[in-house]
C-alpha cells in the first residue's frame, strides 16, 4: 500500500481511528512479514484521494468489513495454492491492485445472462517460491442472511489470471470439485 497519511483532512469533522490491524497475509520481499491494514483515517484519506465521497461516520464499519473481505480473498487463494506442492510451502502476497472499473471477461459474460456486475475487482500477485502468479478477484454483493438481514454479505470469485498455467489450474480445480458434471 502506498504511504497514506494518518493526518485528518482539513474539512474533517470527526476523529477517525489511527490504529492498524495486522493481517494474516504473508508479505513478500518486505521488512514487515505480514500485511498491515490501513487505519480508519488512512482508509478515509485513500478514498478521498481516489475522488470518492466517503462518510466519516462509516469508517468504523467499512474498515473491518474491508479487512474481513481481504482475509476471505486470501483463504480462497490458499485453496488454489494448495494444488501446488512447493519446497517453501508458503505463498506470499507481493502486491495487489484495485481495478474497480475493469470488468473481467467472465463477469461481462455473466452479465449477459442477467447476473449483476461485480462492485470491485482486484488483481493480487503472489510469490510462489520465486514464481509470480496473478489471481483475479471479482467482488460481488452476496445474498442477505435471513437470520441477520443487516449483516453485509459478499461473494468472491477468486481464480488464477488467464495464462497457460492459470487455465490449467482452473481445469484442475474444476475437475477436483466435480464441476464438469
UniProtKB/TrEMBL annotation:
Which PROSITE patterns is this protein grouped with? CYTO_HEME_LYASE_1 (PS00821), CYTO_HEME_LYASE_2 (PS00822)
Tell me the InterPro entries matching this sequence. Answer: Holocyt_c/c1_synthase (IPR000511)
| Superkingdom assignment | Eukaryota
Tell me if Phosphoprotein is a UniProt keyword of this record.
Answer: no
Coiled-coil region: none
Report if keyword Lyase is assigned: yes
Identify the stretch(es) annotated as Disordered: 1-23
Its primary localisation, in coarse terms, equals mitochondrion
GO CC terms: mitochondrial inner membrane; mitochondrial intermembrane space
**Basic and acidic residues: compositionally biased ranges:** 10-21
Q: Which reactions does this protein catalyse?
A: holo-[cytochrome c] = apo-[cytochrome c] + heme b
Leader sequence range is: none
Q: Which UniProt keywords apply?
A: Heme, Iron, Lyase, Membrane, Metal-binding, Mitochondrion, Mitochondrion inner membrane
Single GO MF descriptor: holocytochrome-c synthase activity
EC code:
4.4.1.17
* Compartments, as annotated in UniProt: Mitochondrion inner membrane
> Family per UniProt?
Belongs to the cytochrome c-type heme lyase family.
Explain the purpose of this protein: Lyase that catalyzes the covalent linking of the heme group to the cytochrome C apoprotein to produce the mature functional cytochrome.
| Protein name (record) | Holocytochrome c-type synthase
